[in-house]
Amino acid sequence: MSKKYDYLVVGSGLFGSIFAYEAKKRGKECLVIEKRNHIGGNIYCENINGINVHKYGAHIFHTSNRAVWDYINQFAEFNNYINSPVAIYKDELYNLPFNMNTFSKMWGIKTPAEAKEIIEAQKAEYNIENPQNLEEQALSLIGKDVYEKLIKGYTEKQWGRSCTELPSFIIRRLPVRYTYDNNYFNDRYQGIPIGGYTKIIEKMLDGVDVLLETSFEDYKAANDISDMKIVYTGNVDEYFGYKYGALQYRTVRFETEIMEDCDNYQGNAVVNYTEREVPYTRIIEHKHFEFGQGKGTIISKEYSSEWSVGIEPYYPINNDENNALYQKYEALADAEENVIFGGRLGKYKYYDMDKVIEAALAAVETEFE
Ligand code: UDP
């Protein structure tokens, strides 16, 4: 006789794995199904030559939520990596996020007052009070020079849309500072799990049954799932058979090179290429997330393109049109009594990892408390 499960968790990323871990702790039986041949969703790392390669794009953990930080630290010890990307525009190199190092290099100035004067003058040219899109948000925050050199080309490559068609919140993720501080995030806690992210997921799923290479469609076709509750972390529109049409996502293709004879390719984990003409958005050199351990080096060039059914979705495109369509799916999802939707794809949200943890713990609380 086959085993009885209380929950069928579709997807073994952060949301599904936290749910399964917490359910198991409460004496519930979960079956996790994962369509890929490995667990972890997009935080999956593969160790190659002693280097943890972020296979689905760089993941840097950061949060200001102490409870989330304590929660994730149960599963891994974090190093003290601080993300400080470098941006290359043509033959010019700048520090990110936008800070005094960036401004000093761009305008040859030294003090915050000088930087402010230039930025205020550039902002005044546009005089935008209520930014309606990403371009207006950027111009009203930082002015024309930074927008044109460090934002416009990168953003249009990453999102495949004009900055005037993108929501302003995307750029609000980045700090603007009048100090010489290259820390990309404002959050209180930050780091990379020592040993990679996959180990975190392995710990969460320790003792939980997992079926790899098993899609929800295939599982449903072969099994009776009527007495299981479902935790669904796949695309919400796919769950409903795209009945209102497909939501838009961006996908990323990685060109990864293993360089046995090079120790240090770019001197930094993240280098962004902000001009339009370079086809990739950034190059990640994975060993620098863990302070250079490993043999040789491994780099990944990221190419961004539009998603279509059948390939991996990465970023929901939360513009007005898609958000309106998502609301229709959300209404269906809310009415689906036996299913909990979660994660970037299940909620169609540009979530960071800490927000996924918050959402997963909230779902656990709703379910069990
Ligand atoms: N961005 C930019 N220039 C950069 C880096 C980021 O204009 O050099 C903008 C771009 O619009 C991007 C957004 O900031 O989509 C968020 O960047 P982040 O690095 O947070 O994106 P993620 O790591 O999630 O891809």
Characterization of this structure:
By secondary structure, the chain is an alpha/beta fold. Helices cover 34% and strands 19% of the residues. It has 13 helices and 16 strands. The strands form 4 sheets. The chain has a 7-stranded mixed sheet. The protein has a 5-stranded parallel sheet with strand order 9-2-1-10-16. β1, α1 and β2 form a beta-alpha-beta unit. α1 packs parallel to α13. The longest helix is centred in the middle third of the chain and has 16 residues. The chain is globular. The two termini are 31 Å apart. The model has no long low-confidence stretch (mean pLDDT 96). Bound molecules: uridine-5'-diphosphate (UDP). The site of uridine-5'-diphosphate has 13 residues, from α6 and α7.
N-to-C span: 31 Å
Describe the main β-sheet briefly.
7 strands, mixed
Count the E strands.
16
**Low-confidence region ranges:** none
Strand composition percent: 15-25%
Along the chain, the helix and strand elements come as: EHEEEEHEEHHHHHEHEHEHEEEEEHEHH
By secondary-structure content and strand pairing, the structural class works out as alpha/beta
Radius of gyration, in angstroms, nearest whole number: 22 Å
Bound molecules: uridine-5'-diphosphate
Mean pLDDT: 96
Count of DSSP helices?
Answer: 13
What overall form do the CA principal axes indicate?
globular
Residues in helix, %: 25-40%
- Neighbour order of strands in the largest sheet: 7-6-12-13-14-11-15
